[in-house]
Design brief:
Rossmann fold; seven-stranded mixed beta sheet; alpha/beta; single chain; 21 helices; binds guanosine-5'-triphosphate; elongated; 2 domains; binds magnesium ion
Length: about 575
């Protein structure tokens, strides 16, 4: 994060000072820091997007970006922001021009008697004119600190100089409540999502788009990529088997019965299925977050998710879980205390991450090939069952206080819609690629190597024979024990249900659905479980895992035996 780029032409700060940037949610704190320092900061258009206190160093200042403060609620992020307030010499209070009086009334008591400056963002939404400028001057005089009006997305050198000059000579916030007011309030226009009946329907449809587009896109891409990757990898496998030392075969091309566990057998699955799906989902969700659609979806869905113990603003976090559960769980810091538990449960149980989903789809299309069914129908059947069981799970497990109709839980106001900047999409894609190659790939390689070595030593046969009777209660063949166990470490363990040209072992359609469902929901992956423990406590994580496993077993039994009767 260290950088000294870009500030040469502007008035520098006199000495390196620490500036703590605070304000309510989504007022443009991260965006402003990014524009002032010319460093990429994580700014997206949904409330509570910054969940950690982060430092940005420029040549002459350290900016401390804080999560948005939500004073009516007990969010963990608000606590972190209030603690960070003590860190800086100078406070840069960010308030949104469109709701100026409200922001000042809410924030001034927190900064009283500190030295600082006020940045009024979203100035582009205010009718320019002398009256507006005069109102700002009056507020500045009354508050005792400089006010600077900006469009935080377009900070010119002139504005940068003004901000630095003000930070060099800050005032002191002398009042906790001002005696003058700006007197205006500008609301974002209502759209289709705000329609009383159509709104929630559209919101649900929009929520399904990323998942469906990912399924469709990943299926199509896999059709194109599969032959290319196979043409490249099959001769390599043949050459390894024919000429390479035997120990390399254990790791690279090991086979168990019909099925290759080796790295070269399994690797293409990851590239053909997981990578495109992960990327596609990240870019779509990135566009949703940056445009503000996701926040409007949250507002529209608020009444519908209330009986599940969630507030509308938690929905985006569950949806983020379809990318990767880990950042989604961390982002629940911005949930209120009583809905955080249900939000984490929903992510751990129902948010099929971008590794689980493609792995599941790959297995379902392998099943479709083997049984002559339709991969799309199977995928829709799987997703529907996952959705329904997640809703039942939440409804039955949400604490009474969270789902009580008397507890309205906080919800946000609708944001201004914006065109997503290409840089925001690129940031999502880059972050996802980095995560894929640096975190997911090494663990996937490890899973393959461990599985190959275990297969070689006969441990897999042994496990299958021990766990075989256990999975038999779900009407599953003994071989399915391994993918289920490995999926509890990483969700792409589900890939082990599939082989190069179909299923790894014979299964009926219902058995395939049962297998991928059980492997998907029995436990969250290991990294998610550890993250939940770090964010909450070991004890409550233990309880959550146990509860999830029990519900998963119940739902799987219904699917296994009910499905057998129906299909
Ligand atoms: N039109 C306009 N949009 C802005 C302005 N400042 C920020 N935005 C947009 O508002 C959205 C929220 O900005 P962020 O910088 O993430 O806000 P934040 O205060 O850091 O939000 P949290 O971290 O969630 O509290 C982004 O989509 C920004 O591009 C502004 O001055 N004008
Ligand atoms: Mg932020």
């Amino acid at each position: 994060m260290l950088s000294t780029r870009g500030l040469e032409n502007t008035l520098p700060l006199v000495s390196q000072q620490t500036i703590v940037v605070i304000g309510r949610e989504s007022v443009g704190k991260s965006q402003l820091i990014s524009s002032l320092t010319r460093l990429a900061a994580g700014e997206t258009n949904f409330r509570g997007s910054t969940v950690t206190v982060e430092q940005y160093r420029s040549a002459d200042a350290i900016y401390i970006d804080t999560p948005g403060i939500f004073r009516q609620s007990d969010t963990d992020t608000t606590r972190r922001a209030l603690e960070a307030l003590q860190l800086g010499d100078t406070v840069l209070l960010v308030v949104q021009a469109t709701q100026l009086d409200e922001d000042l009334a809410e924030m001034l008591p927190l900064v009283q008697s500190r030295q600082g400056v006020v940045a009024v963002t979203f100035w582009d939404k205010v009718q320019p004119g002398e009256a507006a400028i005069e109102a700002i001057e009056k507020l500045s005089t009354d508050a005792g600190v400089p006010f600077i009006t900006v469009d935080a997305r377009q900070v010119t050198d002139g504005i940068r100089t003004r901000v630095n000059a003000s930070l060099n000579a800050p005032g002191v916030f002398r009042k906790s409540a001002l005696s003058v007011r700006a007197g205006w309030r500008i609301e974002p226009k209502a759209g289709w999502l705000e329609h009383r009946v159509m709104g929630p329907v559209l919101a649900i449809a929009l929520l399904l788009v990323p998942a469906l587009a990912t399924i469709f896109g990943a299926n199509r891409l896999a059709d194109v990529l599969n032959p290319i990757v196979a043409a490249w990898i099959n001769p390599l496998i043949a050459s390894v088997n024919a000429t390479w030392p035997s120990w390399t075969r254990v790791v690279l091309t090991a086979e168990q019965g019909q099925f290759g566990y080796g790295l070269l057998n399994m690797g293409p699955f990851l590239l053909v299925w997981a990578l495109p799906a992960v990327l596609l989902f990240a870019v779509i969700l990135g566009a949703y977050k940056a445009s503000g659609i996701v926040e409007r979806i949250n507002v529209a869905l608020h009444p519908l998710v209330r009986p599940l113990g969630l507030s509308g603003r938690d929905v985006v976090r569950v949806v983020m879980g379809f990318g990767c559960n880990v950042p989604a769980v961390i982002s629940t810091r911005a949930c209120s205390g009583c809905s955080r538990g249900p939000a984490i449960s929903a992510i751990a149980f129902g948010a099929a991450c971008s590794y689980q989903l493609p792995a599941t789809l790959a297995v379902l299309s392998a099943a479709a090939v083997s049984t002559g069914g339709s991969a799309v129908l199977l995928s829709i059947g799987f997703l529907s069952y996952l959705l329904v069981t997640t809703l039942v799970y939440l409804r039955l497990t949400a604490p009474k206080v969270a789902s009580s109709p008397l507890n309205v839980l906080m919800n946000s106001r609708r944001p201004f819609m914006q065109w997503p900047a290409p840089s925001a999409l690129w940031r999502e894609a880059r972050g996802t690629l980095k995560q894929f190659f640096l975190q997911a790939m090494p663990i996937f390689v490890l899973i393959c190597v461990v599985a190959s070595v275990l297969a070689r030593c006969g441990v897999l046969d042994f496990c299958s024979s021990v766990l075989g009777p256990v999975v038999a209660i779900f009407n599953l063949p003994a071989e399915s024990a391994l993918p289920v166990v490995l999926a509890s470490v990483r969700k792409d363990g589900i890939f082990l249900f599939a082989a190069e040209n179909g299923l790894a072992f014979p299964m009926t359609t219902v058995q395939v659905l049962t297998g991928v469902y059980l492997a998907g929901v029995l436990f969250p992956c290991l990294v998610t479980a550890l993250t939940i423990a770090r964010e909450t406590s070991w004890r409550s994580t233990g309880m959550l895992l146990l509860r999830q496993a029990l519900f998963a077993i119940g739902f799987t039994l219904i699917l296994a035996w009910g499905g057998r009767l129906l299909l």
